[in-house]
Amino acid sequence: MLAGAAAPAPSAAKPAYPAHPIQTTIKTVTLQALDDPRPSLAKRSVYFDFDSFLIHDSERPLIEAHAKYLASNRTSKGRIEGNSDERGSWEYNLALGQKRVHAVLASLRLIGAPVGEMEAISFGEEKPADPGHDEAARARNRRADLIYVSR
Q: What is the model's pTM?
């Protein structure tokens, strides 16, 4: 500011919001059980220990939720994909993935799910969820995935 110059007059402040109200419409959307990311049906991978196809007690709620869904939605079709980490021979990992699939299928069947429309397939080490080679990555790859193809 120059010496002797007058200070500028304050300008009128603009309102932070428009003067007219904004109208919005909120829609209620109903999600199918399999599309809702919150419940246990959103989780679709059963994890296993190294060199094992035994299902942990911690995985039971996931299997029970899918068994109940399959029992109440008898037209649902899908597959269970068995996977392993990269350790072991190709043949061994393929067989281990298949044993994991059959463990999940047997558990679903015992709870009352009609699994006749579920395809069983093993990918062995060919379809890793995590491409890493540390123990955390291997743990994420030792799994059986429940895939729904029709609802």
A: 0.74
